TrEMBL record:
InterPro entries: MFS_trans_sf, TM_effector. This is MFS transporter. It holds the Pfam family MFS_3. The chain crosses the membrane at residues 15-36, 48-68, 80-102, 114-141, 153-173, 179-199, 229-254, 266-289, 296-324, 378-402. It comes from Leeuwenhoekiella parthenopeia. It is found in: Cell membrane. It is a multi-pass membrane protein.
Amino acid sequence: MAKNDPYAALRYREFNLFLLVRFAMVFAWSMQFVVIEWEVYSITKNPLSLGIIGLMEVIPAVSLALFAGHIVDQREKRSLLFKCIFGFSVVSVGLFLLTWPVVTQHITTSLTLYFIYALVFIGGIVRAFLGPTIFSLFALIVPKKIYPNAATWSSSVWQMGGVVGPAVGGFLIHLIGVHWSMCVIFGFSLMALGVLTQIKRKPIMNPKIGEPVLQSLKEGIQFVRNSKAVLGALSLDMIAVLFGGAVALLPIYAQDILKVGPQGFGILRAAPAVGALITMFTSAYFPLYKAAGMKLLAAVFGFGVCIIVFGLSTSFWLSVFALFMSGVTDGVSMIIRQTILQLKTPDSMRGRVASVNSMFVGSSNELGAFESGLTAKLMGTVTAVVFGGSMTLITVVATGILSPKFRKLDLRKDLEEHEKED
């Protein structure tokens, strides 16, 4: 059976092309975020400025998320993804210019900073459409019976980009500087555009083309609200990411606490993604859809413990290990969440459900960055990280006690039903 074949999804050519596109974009986006974090903190030496980067991206991402989901469900997915990647490329070119001494010598440091924030804001607009488009295109490339396996490989590639992007970003800052690092980012966005042209256009699965926007958005919200499995998974992960956003403070740890420079910063930034990547490759052989609810609760609890250990550590390698283990637990959480969403969401509503997901989870990364920057300013960096990890533990315990149905969640029945459909 497909669910017992760890390479089932990789036997589809277009899925492999899809993975290349996703890797290129995650690599470029995560590297760009790291490079800009480094540049902004180097300019300001203010932890709150790191939080503002996250805030500038999360405002448009959240504000436009539901509308973006409606558009995605109404449009052809491959063409829409092409436009999203093109928009990201424009932002990268702008940041390339803003880190070029030939340009920056003619404008003040404050003005440069404002322009960077403005481009990050535009990137947030692109982000609002990118996530739902990728989620929807994924479902049109592989059959439903191998969604869990495809979700594992897709998440693995996402994490691989998260490993390579930050690590390369940290090392390239040291080797060639921020400006030329932005040029590398632009090159990967162009590669993604080229590979995407090899994927065929897909049919629009929504039978309600032309449906009024408000009615469409209402249906999407009602579906998520009425699906306890989807709502529980999104809520749990949102709170964990919101309060466990210690990664946003890594420039402070690298420069001021651990004093390891840009090379150490790259290692610290990549450590969580390395852990998650190992987890995801392993899960291709040991699927996580059995007892999914308890596994998700345990994974998020472990994530919170790792964040607390990292916050208290003054040893570089202990910090690396804590971040690595946070990635291992986060990898489990991500696979289970993506499997729940793919199995529980109708084809006609994937864009809207993915948009709600981006509001709950995707944007909470940036909102978590703002929360971390703000609490670091108010409490101090170490206290802020420990506080965030503690709030994650409290959230998991509360969810486990208040939602016994979620604790008992198992996805085997859903998978069997989809196998019958295929």
